[in-house]
Design brief:
By secondary structure, this protein is α+β, with helices and mostly antiparallel strands. The protein has 11 helices and 21 strands.
Length: about 400
């Protein structure tokens, strides 16, 4: 049966019922991101796009899919959304799908909540061998100002003056409050009071120096199956927004993340027991404590949906044995941009050991794309650090 891939990237807003104002800029950004869902497609599948946003100039890794607006002749096709929300479920019903084909939306909402992930947001101490021992939790759920004060004061006593508060359901790197101590300005107080009144309150955690991050990808079956599909290290900007992924040959997982993989199976079992099935991504991170030690945060984000890391895994088939790649996403402001552009350049010593693969269409609705993505394939892991220095100058770990 052909599948319809739905790039509902406002999935979190759909879960909460928030209405996000769509501007021409946000609409264009979503249109340029949508074709990447073709990485999940099989021959004959269709990615649903707006009628004014048909991509052209497709690279080989995307041209096996069709790109079409929703139409009546699609009835009977199986819908595969970025994430299951009531909006996606209503569309599936209109296409003739049975409700048993997706998990209950209230379960999806719970699995994507901070209330759920907080149960598993454990920290492991550093160790040179074996699975590190657990060293306590990372953040604190707060439902009122008193709980928030206690949480922030406890962080300060442990050496963390700077902190971040996140709503119960939010997209990573968006709609959060970053502050220092207990003194807030009017805008910060407004944000905090608003979100403390919402179901689930806020999750308060220390702002730490991140050394490395990784996305773990699982598929939870409707039966008892739980499949670990692989891991891609995350390349995020200084405030935690996604910029790219590090991809290694199939089956290769750095030993640093194995404790988190084991922990991830436990999270998947709990989600499965609650009634969830489908894709599940878990982010974990190595960070530096206030006293300079290294710790592994086993699950800083749990996403009951597809993720950029899951898309990145699909590119593993382009790697040969021993190769490692960086999948780099660019809004047009980076010195290293798209293949064939005037800004595209690698130093000679790096270029001879790196090949590039374009992973974005050249135009969307007859307009040149601004958001590009390139797969930089290194001949070996020793080349990767030099490449990352060019992609994002400064410390990479």
């Amino acid at each position: 049966m052909p599948r319809l891939l739905l790039p509902n990237f406002t999935f979190e807003d759909q879960l909460t019922g928030r209405s996000s104002r769509e501007t021409p800029e946000t609409k264009r950004a979503a249109d340029e991101l949508a074709p990447l869902m073709a990485l999940l497609a099989e021959p004959g599948d269709t990615v649903i796009v707006r009628d004014s946003a048909i991509p052209a100039g497709l690279p080989d890794c995307l041209n096996h899919a069709q790109f079409r607006p929703l139409s009546a002749d699609m009835n009977g096709a199986r819908l595969v959304p970025w994430g299951w929300s009531s909006v996606a479920a209503e569309l599936a019903v209109s296409l003739g799908a049975d409700k048993s084909e997706w998990p209950p939306i209230d379960v999806v909402r719970d699995v994507n909540s901070r209330r759920f992930s907080a149960r598993f947001d454990d920290v492991a101490g550093s160790s040179d061998a074996g699975v590190p021992a657990l060293d306590g939790g990372f953040g604190t759920l707060c439902s009122d100002r008193d709980e928030w004060r206690r949480a922030v004061s406890a962080l300060a006593a442990s050496g963390y003056d700077r902190w971040v508060a996140k709503p119960d359901i939010s997209h990573a790197g968006r709609n959060r409050l970053i502050a220092v101590g207990l003194e807030l300005n009017a805008q910060q107080r407004g944000w905090l009071d608003k979100h403390l009144q919402l179901p689930g309150g806020v999750y308060v955690e220390p702002w730490v120096r991140t050394k490395a991050e990784c996305g773990l990808q699982f598929e939870i079956g409707r039966d008892d199956s739980i499949d670990f599909l692989g891991a891609t290290e995350l390349l995020n900007d200084p405030v935690g927004r996604y910029q790219g992924s590090i991809i290694r040959a199939a089956g290769e997982v750095d030993s640093r993340w194995m404790a988190a993989v084991e922990h991830g199976h436990r999270i998947c079992r709990e989600a499965q027991h609650a009634g969830y099935f489908g894709p599940l991504g878990i982010d974990c991170m190595m960070y530096e404590t206030a006293d300079g030690d290294s710790r592994l945060r086993l699950a800083n984000d749990v996403n009951g949906r597809f993720t950029m890391g899951r898309l990145a895994l699909q590119l593993r088939t382009l790697l040969k044995s021993g190769e490692v790649a960086a999948w780099w996403h660019n809004s047009g402001s980076s010195p290293v941009q798209s293949e064939g552009s005037p800004e595209f350049s690698l130093s000679p010593c790096v270029a001879k050991n790196v090949r590039t693969v374009r992973t974005y269409p050249q135009s969307i609705g007859c307009r040149p794309v601004r958001a590009t993505s390139i797969l930089y394939v290194c001949s070996g892991p020793e080349v990767l650090p030099s490449l990352l220095e060019l992609l994002r100058p400064g410390p990479t770990n």
